[in-house]
Amino acid sequence: MNKNKQRMNPIDPDFFLDITPETCPMTFVRTKLLIEKMALGELAEVRLQGIEPLENVPRSVLDMGHEVVSMEPEAETITDDGIHRLVIRKR
Q: Which CATH architecture has domain 15-89?
């Protein structure tokens, strides 16, 4: 599991998934497959990039009834399509 100690709100997730090389709809497909493996209450950190994944993945997670705990840019330089870290809790 990769832990970034520079985050402002450190969270110790149970799972980590890097979907930065993926494009929609595979970004959510891979996230959904991860959620299906998780137990209720467990946390997953998803590393994502690109305008579509940044909009669609958190929305789809919420539509499925799960919780978006946080979504923060990975670097101090923030761009619309930069890499972000999304933390979700299975409900």
A: 2-Layer Sandwich (3.30)
